[in-house]
Design a protein that fits this description.
single chain; about 400 residues; alpha+beta; 8-stranded mixed beta sheet
């Protein structure tokens, strides 16, 4: 049934979006003029105003005030932002700046502060190309400037920024953190937790590579729902194993999953593929009866397969970037190392909290485990159901 869950990921249809707050821009440098195209999900633009407004006007005004180019301390002339055609659900704006001197001799600084005030975890992916090469980087609230012209304009992909992106991606993703906590509760002891985390790493590393290389193109909405499912199942199974609960609870969960297409049909709401939901229901029902098989490798095996879904979620930011093949390996490696660093940091924090509790309390109340597992199960279920209907 673990194999069945892995296959369900491959059943996802192509998609083009990710729920993380992010934007993209590509820039072309010529002499003293730089032309760019800024792209973002239309939903993010609605966050710029509390009252309904025309989104294209809202985005144009926002970019006009948050994107600028300076050379030798002087602000370069900016043309009026122009809205151009974009994929469904996205908005694109064309930008142009003209400076007094050629960039090759007098480098400039491009400042992009768009949407950082709206979302503290917003990420902007930028690619600048000139006659000599290209430069790619990841901009965040703490690093919103990039050089135009000079040697930095064609240094390739900024590996350090992707390393930081992977680290922040884990720590800023509450669903990934919730899964790590549920996985630790399912695994049990320290040795089992380390094995489970290793399995999770193998799983998400494989999918991350397959997605980034274009071999696997999963549906992002389905992946986000699957991540919610992994949180709910890991937490629920941890509680069921600890309290030796009846496997019939698993069948109740499977029935609930199978009810989603019926609810969608009655209400007219869009829902995930019926085949995918049927596969998850089969997994939930069957694995609940396999609970009697309890060994040191159960949690690592589950974590490896569930890691496939999380890897597709990790790869979301890389799908939108046209990273050259020569730079792809280093980008993947840096991003994955950042993800591992984020995981270790999250586990270290969890371990520190647990150590403090054990040091201050004579005995950690048993209901604390049940309450935590139940809360994670409820949270994962909410994510799964809400994303299944998205």
């Amino acid at each position: 049934m673990l194999i069945a869950f892995a296959i369900s990921i491959a059943l996802c249809l192509p998609a083009s979006a990710h729920t993380r707050s992010q934007s993209f821009s590509t820039w072309t440098v010529a002499d003293s003029i730089i032309d760019g195209v800024f792209q973002i999900d239309a939903y993010r633009v609605t966050q710029l105003s509390e009252t309904p407004q025309d989104l294209t006007t809202l985005l144009r005004d926002h970019l006009a005030s948050t994107v600028k180019l300076t050379q030798d301390g002087t602000t370069c002339a900016a043309a009026a932002p122009r809205v151009i055609s974009a994929p469904r659900g996205d908005l694109r704006v064309e930008l142009r700046f003209t400076c007094a001197k050629p960039f090759a001799e007098n480098p400039a600084q491009l400042h992009i502060n768009a949407f950082f005030d709206v979302s503290i975890s917003h990420v902007h992916y930028i690619r600048i190309t000139d006659a000599d090469g290209f430069h790619e980087a990841v901009l965040t609230q703490g690093r919103s400037d990039v050089a135009v012209g000079g040697a930095t304009a064609h240094t390739g992909t900024d590996v350090a920024s992707f390393l930081l992106l992977g680290f922040e991606h884990v720590l800023s993703g509450i669903d990934h953190i919730a899964f790590l906590l549920a996985l630790a509760m399912l695994a049990g002891g320290l040795w089992r937790i380390l094995l489970a985390v290793t399995g999770f790493t193998l799983g998400h590393s494989l999918t991350l590579a397959l997605v980034a290389l274009g071999i696997l193109r999963p549906d992002t909405a389905a992946v986000e729902a699957l991540i919610g499912f992994t949180v709910a199942w890991a937490a629920g199974d941890a509680l069921a194993r600890a309290r030796n609960m009846s496997p019939w609870y698993g069948l109740a969960g499977a029935a609930g999953i199978l009810a989603l297409p019926l609810i969608a049909w009655i209400t007219g709401l869009p829902v995930l593929s019926w085949l995918l939901l049927a596969g998850l229901a089969l997994f939930a029902g069957t694995m609940s009866f396999a609970r009697r098989f309890d060994g040191p490798y159960v949690a690592p095996a589950i974590a490896t397969v569930f890691g496939l879904a999380h890897g597709a979620g990790f790869a979301g930011p890389l799908l939108e970037m046209d990273i050259p093949p020569g730079q792809l390996i280093w980008t993947l490696l840096a991003f994955n190392l950042g993800v591992e660093g984020g995981q270790l940091a999250a586990l270290a924090i969890m371990g520190a909290v647990l150590w403090i509790l054990r040091s201050t309390l004579t005995q950690v109340p048993k209901p604390a485990f049940d309450a935590t597992a139940a809360a994670l199960f409820a949270l994962g279920t909410f994510w799964f159901v809400s994303r299944a209907f998205a």
